[in-house]
């Protein structure tokens, strides 16, 4: 089965929390960081990965995303703080893979 992920992004001031779901976390974060799609995350500069959960089923990930989106800001902050209290970018160094032609296909 293909893994799926629910993830939180924030901006440099940590004023916005975006929640998304994907089956390819590395590629999706790269897309956010390079602003490949116009939308919420590019408008509010959400490109710092601060939290994620892994699932073995995309349907479970989608249900979890809906549950998390229904929660308030405090619950989201509590989840982030439980895994990443400093709100560090968990994707630090991931862009290296997309800068290496020999590695690109591995994460597409």
From TrEMBL:
Q: Which domain of life is it from?
A: Bacteria
**Span of domain GIY-YIG:** 2-78
Q: List the PROSITE patterns.
A: GIY_YIG
Q: Which Gene3D superfamilies match?
A: GIY-YIG endonuclease (3.40.1440.10)
- According to its UniProt record, which protein family does this protein belong to? Belongs to the UPF0213 family.
| Name this protein carries in UniProt | GIY-YIG nuclease family protein
What is the organism lineage in this UniProt record?
Bacteria, Pseudomonadati, Bacteroidota, Flavobacteriia, Flavobacteriales
